[in-house]
Design brief:
This protein is an alpha+beta fold. Helix content is 40%, strand content 21%. It has a 4-stranded antiparallel beta sheet, sandwiched between helices.
């Protein structure tokens, strides 16, 4: 069992394409089978303001408008996972951004066929995890 000082938290978004395809249980199950702990989980929609805040670094990039449309186009699951090196563990489980190129055995490698509609978002650093968790779950600080 990890001590409290070993526990790292990360935000995961199970995107609208995964919700539409009925993959929520499969995805959450992979995280749980790996040994990550589910801190909280909610089904919700991302509105335009939340999309702009979440993707603040990308708002001025040409790929952002279609990404925003996709992410605000249906319900998603927002969750916080915790565990030893949770950020790196989750990113390893989900695979590379482009599902067409992601390794077999990863969530994207097994289940995604797109770069934008790639099923899952995960924080990429302790700083982004802290910012994203505060944005999605302000009660967790």
């Amino acid at each position: 069992m990890s001590s409290p000082t070993d526990v790292e938290r990360t935000l995961v978004l199970i995107k609208p394409d995964a919700v539409r395809r009925g993959l929520v249980g499969e995805i959450v199950g992979r995280f749980e089978r790996k040994g990550l702990h589910l801190v909280t989980l909610t089904l919700r929609e991302m509105d335009a303001d939340l999309a702009d805040a979440h993707y603040a670094d990308h708002v001025d990039k040409p790929f952002y408008p279609p990404l925003k449309e996709f992410m605000t186009g249906g319900p998603l699951i927002a969750l916080v996972l915790a565990g030893d090196q949770a950020i790196d563990v989750v990113r390893g489980l989900i695979g590379s951004t482009d599902g067409r190129k992601a390794a077999a055995g990863t969530i994207r490698g097994d289940l995604a066929l797109s770069n934008r509609e790639n099923l899952v978002h995960a924080s990429d650093s302790p700083e982004s995890a802290a910012r994203e968790i505060k944005l999605w779950f302000p009660e967790l600080g």
